[in-house]
Design a protein that fits this description.
Length: 243
C-alpha cells in the first residue's frame, strides 16, 4: 500500500472515531450520570464530567483494539517495562512539564502584551481558560473520585494514546520514511488534543503540550522502538498538569 493510502486510511479511522463517537460522548454521559448515586453529593456537572472521562477512556481502548488488526501492528512488541526505562521516562515527563509550562507562560505574556483588551492579564485567569475542555474532566475526577480511580484512568488514557500515536501509527508509516511517520504522528496527536476544546483559547494550551510531547516522543520512539518510557513520561506530565 502506498504512503497516500496508508495516511488516508489512518486519517479516515481517526476522523471517524473522533467525529462519530467522541463528539457524541456528551450525549451518552448524561444517561450514565442519571444512574450514579453521587449526583446529590457532588453535583451533576462534576459527576457528568467523570462519566465523560470514563467513557472516553474505554472508547479509546476499544478504538486501539480496532486499529491493531487494521494496521497489522502488534504494540506489545514495543513494551519493555524495565524499571530503569520507566524511571527515565518519569524524569522525561518532569522535564517536558517544565518546558511546556515555560512555553505556555511565554505565550500568555506575548498575547497579553499584544492584545491586552482581548486576553486576561492575571495568571489565575489564564488557568481558568487552560482547565477547560478535557482537562476539566480530570480536575473533577481529582475532586470526587478515589485516588486509585484517578491514577488508573489517567494511566490507561495516556498509555493508549502513546500506543496509538507512537507504537501503531509510526510503525505503520515507517516503511515510507521516518520523516513522514514522525510528522503525521505529531500532527494527528495535536489535532486530536484540540479537536473538542470549547474555544481556541482553551485549545492553545493542549496544542503547546501536544506539539512538544508529540515531537519528542515520536523522535524517541524512532530511536528506541520502546513506548514504555513514553507512557511513563506522559503519565507524569499529565498528573502534573492536572494536580
Amino acid at each position: 500500500m502506498t504512503a497516500f493510502w496508508q495516511v488516508s486510511l489512518l486519517s479516515a479511522f481517526i476522523g471517524a472515531y473522533n467525529g462519530a463517537f467522541v463528539g457524541r460522548i456528551g450525549r451518552i454521559a448524561p444517561f450514565v450520570t442519571r444512574h450514579v448515586p453521587l449526583v446529590d453529593r457532588f453535583g451533576w456537572t462534576a459527576v457528568n464530567d467523570v462519566a465523560r472521562l470514563t467513557i472516553a477512556t474505554v472508547s479509546q481502548l476499544l478504538f486501539l483494539l480496532v486499529l491493531i488488526p487494521v494496521t497489522g501492528i502488534n504494540p506489545l512488541a514495543s513494551l519493555s517495562w524495565h524499571p530503569a526505562v520507566i524511571a527515565a521516562g518519569a524524569l522525561l515527563g518532569v522535564a517536558e512539564m517544565g518546558f511546556t509550562s515555560f512555553m505556555a507562560h511565554v505565550l500568555m505574556r506575548a498575547m497579553t502584551s499584544l492584545a491586552p483588551a482581548r486576553f486576561p492579564a492575571a495568571v489565575d485567569d489564564w488557568l481558568v481558560v487552560a482547565r477547560g475542555g478535557w482537562m476539566r474532566y480530570f480536575t473533577h475526577a481529582v475532586r470526587i473520585t478515589p485516588r486509585w480511580f484517578l491514577l488508573s484512568t489517567t494511566l490507561l488514557y495516556v498509555a493508549v494514546e502513546e500506543i496509538i500515536f507512537r507504537a501503531v501509527i509510526i510503525t505503520y508509516l515507517l516503511p515510507h520514511g521516518s520523516a513522514l511517520a514522525l510528522l503525521y504522528s505529531m500532527l494527528a496527536f495535536t489535532v486530536v488534543q484540540v479537536l473538542h476544546t470549547p474555544s481556541w483559547k482553551t485549545g492553545m494550551f493542549p496544542a503547546v503540550g501536544a506539539i512538544a510531547v508529540g515531537g519528542v516522543h515520536g523522535w524517541l520512539f524512532l530511536v528506541t522502538g520502546d513506548v514504555t518510557p513514553l507512557i511513563a513520561a506522559h503519565f507524569i506530565f499529565f498528573l502534573a498538569a492536572v494536580l
